[in-house]
Write a structure and sequence with these properties.
This protein is an all-alpha fold. It is built from 2 helices and no strands.
Length: 55
């Protein structure tokens, strides 16, 4: 991830935590999915889904 992407996701996490903490699980899972999508788009080796874990 770029620095800006990392910063954006970190700020988003804290904003969610302090404004709607009851929705943190769904929010965090969404962020993880976005992270995986970014990795796949950039052809990062671990994100290729070869073991079926990241699909």
């Amino acid at each position: 991830m770029t620095f800006d992407e990392t910063l954006e996701m970190t700020i988003g996490w804290y904003r969610q935590f302090y404004t709607a903490p009851d929705d943190m699980a769904a929010f965090a899972l969404g962020q993880i999915q976005r992270y995986i999508e970014l990795a796949r788009a950039r052809n990062i080796a671990w994100a290729d889904g070869g073991d079926g874990e990241t699909k």
